[in-house]
Amino acid sequence: MTDRTAHDPALGIAYVNGSYMPLAEAAIPLTDRGFVRSDATYDVTHVWKGRFFRLDDHIERFLASMRGLRMSLPLSKAEMADVLIECVRRTGLRDAYVQMTCTRGVPPAGTRDPRLCQNRFYAFAQPFVWIANDEQRCDGLKMVVSSVQRIPPESLDPRIKNFHWLDLTMGIFEAYDKDAIVAVLNDGKGNVTEGAGFNVFSVKGNVITTPDRG
Fold first, then answer.
1. CA distance 125 to 11
2. Last residue of a domain, which of 83, 99, 127?
3. For a pLDDT cut of 90, what percent of the chain falls above it?
């Protein structure tokens, strides 16, 4: 007996291998390097009150991340946009979290050469997700400056969106251990960088600043 709620379009629609399906049924091959090596990039755009927020800019950033990781897809920007729009249309959602992902793909048998993989495109739309609930957005969150060091830019350019979240995840656990909710990671030189799913901004003298690296 299947769970009918899993097929409710409002819970999410995914695009995999050229087909649309309930998000709960979406899957990737276990041998895709995106899964076994975190060899993937992604971008997220939001739909708010029935409209995408800067969809073209998010797709352009997605393409820039792909170029940074030497990935390519046989899809134009317009075709990617059409897929994302169709995912949202099929959910019927007015507010949605929409993600596009490019994985390295499955390597041919007997090789680990990433150049031989066919890169794969995935997308999905699901109900909009708040990092903080209503009360937290009103009253604020407890945060710690984590002892965990963020992966340095010399290892991976942080402007390339990626799935390397273990440092961020360990920061989250440290926050929970200290009765906090979120953690911001350091760069090993006494500076803060970013947190899991959020950037750090400082407002001083009517000037907004962000970390210049990391």
1. 9
2. 127
3. 90
